[in-house]
User: What shape does this take?
Amino acid sequence: MFSAKEYLYNLVSCKINGPFAVLLRGFLFLLSLVYGLAVIILASFYRIRPARFSTKVISVGNITLGGTGKTTFVEYLAEKLNSQGKKITVLSRGYKRDTGKQGAQSIGDEPAMLQKKLPFLRVIVDKNRIRAAFKAVRDYAADTLILDDGLQQWRIFKDLEIVTIDAANPFGNCRMLPAGFLREPLSALRRADIFLLTQVKPDQDTSGLCAKLKRINPQALIVESIHKPEAFSNVSVSGSSLGLDSFKGKSVAVFSGIGNPQGFEDCVSSLGIKIAKAFRFADHHDYTQAEIDSIIKAARQINLDTIITTQKDAVKIRELQIRGAAILALDIKLSITKNEAEFNRRLLNLYSL
Assistant: This one.
């Protein structure tokens, strides 16, 4: 039985067919035209006089729903700028955070992951990014603000607009919400300074995608990247680290609540690990003790004693009890594989202006 969200995803992906599905897709298409017009009007209005700050503002965003590797790139960007002596603050809205709870759920999984991995980094979680920006300058003397999920932050002037694009599925069906996965029309990509293609496979031909992006925005730099596995860490043991070959040839279970679970599972498989059981949850899912117990029980029933998850999921289960199996997080880093030198030049040139 599909949830409403799963049904809508399968519907707009044309995985559900029949006369009613065709009719419903037609209705969603009409709604998408209204939504698209509203977005164009609002974006044009808010960009007339955007808020400006004394710091450099770098936006990292995407034009589609779902995971494109934004947060992994924010981590990469923050580490690079920190090595140059910059005082960085990340501004995040903390999607699906619950201020009534403790730990990662109080600020959101992605901000919690960034804070855990990068102790030098300040992360401010606030839906009002302008208010957050003023706080970063006033309280932390930040000289660089990184807007996590910032493409649709039309009210703020950006010194650098970086758009992350999933190389495997860049634009879905090229339709606007709710008939597709686009948050803005593709013409919004004209605002980008840099396109970052994420999770590019070694043998993947990106020439068609690059040509399309060049037609939309000839001036933007196109950079390619991969998500590179680094190590495993035991969720229950702080500071633990295991080599990537620790589970080679072994059968494991995996679970994730991210935008692109297939990408994570492919990454695990690329290490020579056999996935015998996979559990998928909605993006930003908040796990309960009962769910973790159920995952472990299902794994043990088929004689699996190792369970692998993502870093983003790991921060949300550290306070839960893990009994009967080891749960490990796969630590992943982003690595630029094409046009890295030009990317670095454009990034660092911001500070000479």
Summary: The domain at 229-332 is CATH 3.40.50 (Rossmann fold). The chain has a mean pLDDT of 91.
